[in-house]
Amino acid sequence: MAPDIDRERQARDRADGLRVTWVGLIVNVMLVALKLWGGVVGRSQALVADAIHSLSDLFSDFVVVIGIRWGRMEADENHPYGHGRIETIASVFVGVTLLAASIGIAYGAIESIYAHRASQPTTIALVMAAVSIGSKEWMYGYTLKVGRRIHSSALIGNAWHHRSDALSSVAVFLGLLAVQINPAWRVADAVAALVVSAMILHVGAKLVWSAFRELADTAPAEEILTELRNRAEAVDGVLQVHDLRARHSGPQLLVEMHVVVAGAMTVFDGHEIAREVRLRIIEEVEIVGEVLVHLDPDSEMQ
Residue 161 is inside which H or E element, if any? Predict the structure, then answer.
């Protein structure tokens, strides 16, 4: 029962993750074209730069598609623990892309401040910036919701990439608006871009650090381990749980534990208890993908 449920859940999560990523990719292609057109026609260097920034989202989308398509495949002979680390590696690429984007935005902003570049954008540039803000904020919310539901660090990172593009467009919009109101305020969009770059830098660094922790097999939070122990000890016949270990593999948690049962118990009864522990944890703790249960006899019965 549990393996079937797990396979169905994985297939559903994989389909949902791919769907939201493909939607984001299509939106990004449209926005790059619109912002390039709006920047040229509307005489806005900032909007053209924002369009170039959106190209990084296209790269991010392709990386996430690769991570979800192959990272959520079932275990096979060559990958007995599954392919979850592929998604983790994908999230590293997304995080690094965010870091690169933040550095690029900061460099451009600082250069604009020192060069004292001024522009006289038209209304069409403001409209395209507003369209970008609305579209990317919608994609941020949509992608983040799916990413949290299927426990995908790559999707969550990609959601923040959408948010970074939205914030970048906000900076562009405010800068263009300020310059239209008063040409002497041409430095406003550069200052806003510096603030945005700091926010993107923080998110990118956090994502990369989280992925590296997972690749280093860092243990999950103590509250998760406590929940796993409590679920196992709630099974009838379980006297104690010890040597509990768990590690992340992409969106899933791989768990190993030793369960103490009565020493006089038959092998069949002990096996049934171990099976019940595994099924209960997989069914009740959504993030868990597999549980390996070792049986130990009660020391007093040895």
Answer: helix 153-181
Instruction: Look up the domain containing 113 and give its range.
Output: 2-215
The number of domains in the chain is 2
Q: Give the angle 9-258-225 at the CA atoms, nearest 5°.
A: 55
Cα separation, 126 vs 149, in Å, equals 35
Tell me the chain's radius of gyration from C-alpha atoms. Answer: 25
Predicted structure pTM score: 0.59
Q: Are residues 71 and 195 in the same domain?
A: yes
Phi, psi dihedral angles at 257 (to 5 degrees): -150, 155
Q: Is 175:192 a contact under the CB 8 Å cutoff?
A: yes
- Please indicate whether residue 97 or residue 60 has the higher confidence score (pLDDT): 97
Single-letter amino acid, residue 100:
A
User: Count of CB atoms within 10 A of residue 109's CB?
Assistant: 24
Q: What integer pLDDT is reported at residue 103 of this predicted model?
A: 85
Q: Which two tokens stand for residue 181?
A: 């109101």
